[in-house]
Write a structure and sequence with these properties.
The chain is globular and about 55 Å long. The chain has a 6-stranded mixed beta sheet, sandwiched between helices. The chain is built from 10 helices and 6 strands; from the N terminus they run αααββααβαβααββαα. It has a domain at 80-262: 3-Layer(aba) Sandwich (Uracil-DNA Glycosylase, subunit E). Helix 1 (3-14) packs antiparallel against helix 5 (140-151) and helix 3 (80-91) runs antiparallel to helix 6. 37% of the residues lie in helices and 10% in strands. It is α/β, with parallel strands linked by helices. The two termini are 25 Å apart. The structure holds uracil (URA). Residues 41, 123-127, 130, 136-137, 139, 141-142, 163, 239 line the site of uracil (URA).
């Protein structure tokens, strides 16, 4: 079995899809039998593209974008871990910069993982499980993210995971502009400290925030953007995959490309 096919099957197995069929209609659009339930937090609803929007040619890390904030020289720390601790301290365990601290959040959810990771995932904001445990992506969507990470041969400990906003919005509503404005500088500092080679923006919200665009996720997913010192690739949010398992196929394509980028293939 070719390495490619083996990796492909392993990914689907990891994601709970136990086998493939050869009928063309299955390959064209397979919806694994998985209950489609609404889970929180909710990926902003956007229809999956009717046609996979894979570009026919390899995409170059094109489309340089202006960093959303000027990159300021960072204070010098002995290690990235120290620098992240300093950012966390600046943010504060009881941050009150926006109204979310009055709206029922239990704790600030900063970020987790390898301070020197080559790969960083950025989500939207903590959900109920994350709010309780104080760690990003630990609920159902997080468990799927963990499987996605493992499917490309990494562990959660080897990557860095953070969110655009660090406090849970009530009822898992979308973060509001004033909340994002207060919180996103801390994400930018996290990115500038970890210095990943690749940033994967999970879902519409993170992708639009980092890229300063209103383009729909269906248009920007799978594309490569030069972002600060990294390549940024938007892909679908794992919560969306839980509701729309057929979209796992596109995420697998994205993750294979991420794996290539990490291994130095252009
Ligand atoms: N969804 C997110 O965007 N972030 C989390 O931490 C969990 C779910």
């Amino acid at each position: 079995m070719s390495e490619e096919l083996k990796a492909h099957l392993e990914f689907f197995k990891e994601l709970g899809i136990d086998g493939v069929r050869l009928e063309p209609e299955w390959r064209a659009r397979h919806e694994p039998a998985e209950p489609i339930e609404r889970i929180e937090p909710i990926e902003p609803t956007e229809p999956a593209p009717t046609e996979p929007i894979e570009p026919s040619e390899p995409i170059e890390p094109t489309e340089p974008i202006e960093p959303s904030e000027p990159i300021e020289p960072l204070a010098v720390y002995a290690s990235a871990a120290d620098a992240l601790r300093a950012i966390r301290d600046d943010l504060g365990a009881d941050c009150s910069r926006c109204k979310l601290h009055t709206l029922g959040r239990k704790q600030v959810v900063f970020g987790v993982g390898n301070p020197n990771a080559d790969l960083m995932f950025v989500g939207e904001g903590p959900g109920a499980d994350e709010d309780i445990q104080g760690e990003p992506f630990v609920g159902r969507a997080g468990q799927l993210l963990t499987k996605i990470i493992e499917a490309i041969g990494l562990t959660r400990d080897e990557v860095y995971i953070a969110n655009v906003i660090k406090c849970r919005p009530p009822g898992n509503r979308n973060p509001e502009p004033d909340e994002v404005e207060q919180c996103q500088p801390f994400l930018f500092r996290q990115i500038d400290t970890v210095k990943p080679k690749v940033v994967v923006a999970l879902g519409k919200f993170a992708a639009q925030c980092l890229l300063r665009t209103t383009d729909p996720i269906t248009r920007i997913r799978g594309r490569e953007f030069t972002y600060r010192d990294a390549i940024l690739m938007p892909t679908y949010h794992p919560a969306y995959l839980l509701r729309t398992p057929s979209a796992k196929r596109e995420v697998w394509e994205d993750m294979k490309r991420v794996r290539e980028l990490l291994s130095g293939k252009s």
